[in-house]
Each structure stands twice: as structure tokens, then as C-alpha cells.
Design brief:
This protein is of the alpha+beta class. It has one domain: Immunoglobulin-like (Sandwich). Helix content is 23%, strand content 37%. Strands 1, 2, 3, 4, 6, 8 and 10 form a 7-stranded mixed sheet that branches. Strand 12 and strand 13 form a beta hairpin. Helix 3 crosses helix 4. The longest helix is centred in the N-terminal third of the chain and has 19 residues. The protein starts with a helix and ends in a 9-residue tail after the last strand.
Length: 226
Amino acid sequence: MDCRTFNAYLDDLIDGALDAAYAAELESHAGACAHCDQRLARARRLRVALRELPSPEPPVGFADRALQTAAIRAQGARRRARTTAAGFALAASLCLGVAIGVLMDGRPEPGPAGRLQQVSISVSQPQQIRLAFDTEQALPGATLTVRLPAGVELVGFPGRRELSWRTDLAAGTNLLNLPVVARGTEGGKLVTRLSHGERSRTFTVRIRVHQANGQASGPGRGPVGA
């Protein structure tokens, strides 16, 4: 076991998606490697922080203010509130290792092979996808780009599949609620790219769209590459 392999399976370890033997091997490596142990502890703290973040209904004009003023809010881990059924959370760390998780009703939903995470939404019902970026230091002037799959819109921006803006990230956990609505049942991938200087990270989550009868359709039903 080396640090590169540990980083590759860190998300799966946090999600509980590995068999007991391999999970134990990763835990053993972390116990012997201070750097990986710190990374594992940080990823677990981020998951706890996400469960404590509130999921309020987006106020009128939220999307306009969020995108025009680049208002990503730094959230303190001490804030406690339940995660509502309408909220999803995607955590992404800007450390060398990436911690990604999707919470539904406060529970992690493990992704398929390849660690592509997923959320499920219903047609024509606005819901929130919560993006949480955890960084060890402030990132002023970062560029955030969001690319939506066909048939999924950001509330307030009909027909726009890609939006990009500059923002300042504070050290710690930064939260952005994206209110989205599905206009069709295709589903697909939501891709978020965060760039700062010469560094960049791309985070992908599969969106599954359910019809009125609760049946999922579109590309979300089969494997999708990261």
C-alpha cells in the first residue's frame, strides 16, 4: 500500500464502499503514515461538517445573487441543523486527496465503480444540490465553472447549461447551494471545475431524473465515466 493508492480509494473508504479486508489495509496504512492519517481525519471531519450544515429553502433571487456576486459562504463546522430531504451535498477537498460524498436525507449514497457520485431528483420539482469545498487556506480570485446536463437548469437561468464566475474561498468549508430543476428525464452529469492560479480540480456527480411515477430514466441508469 502506498500513498497514491490510499488517495485513490479514500472516498470509497469514507463511504463504506470497500470490503472489510481492503478497508483494514487502508486504515493500517493511515496508521503508519502521518500525512495520510491527517488526510483521512480531514475527510471525516468534512463529512461530519456537511451533516451539520443547514439546508434552507433558497430565497427569491438566490441564483442571481450567488452567481453575480460570487457569494460562496464560509460555513463553520459548529453550526448544527438537520439535512432536509430536498437537500443534497457534494463535498470536495482542494487538498492533494479529494473527499467527495453525496448526502441524501443525511445519509451517504455510495457511488458506483470509479467513485462517480450520484443524486436523484424529480421532474419539474426544484431541488438543491449543495456543493461544499474544503480548503486548508484562503483562495482569493478562484474561478468556479458549473456545467449542467441537458434538461437540467439552474433556477433563474433557463436554457443556460454552463455558468462561470470568480469568487473568493475562505479557509475551511465553503458552501454553495445550487437550486436546480429538471425539465426532462434524460439526466446526466453535473461537472464543477474550481481553478486557482495553475491549480484546478474537477468534480463530477451523476444526476438521475425520476418521472412522476418514480421511475428513473436516461443515462443515469447505466454506467457513466468520470
